[in-house]
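Researcher: I'm preparing a figure for a lab meeting and need a structural model of a single chain. I don't have an experimental structure, so a prediction will have to do for now. The sequence is pasted below. Please return the structure as tokens so I can convert it later.
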Amino acid sequence: DEALFDRVAPDVFDHPVDRGHLARYLATPGHHLFVAIVEGQIVGQVAAVMHYHPDGRPTELYVDEVGVSPAFQRQGIARR
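Model: Understood. Here is the structure written out token by token.
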């Protein structure tokens, strides 16, 4: 999946994707990174982590960040 990050549209992430950080993120249990792809290019992303509560409440998916390239905004990508 890391090869998908060879083609990322502008401003999907706050900074250029660093392969070392990406590999570490993807290898960490409970970390999730969902991407939207158009014609082989990443145009949107959602970064999330599993949040486990110490008091036994149900586990939640914590959405940390949502990003969509400006050229693809207002098309429902983030909503989907």
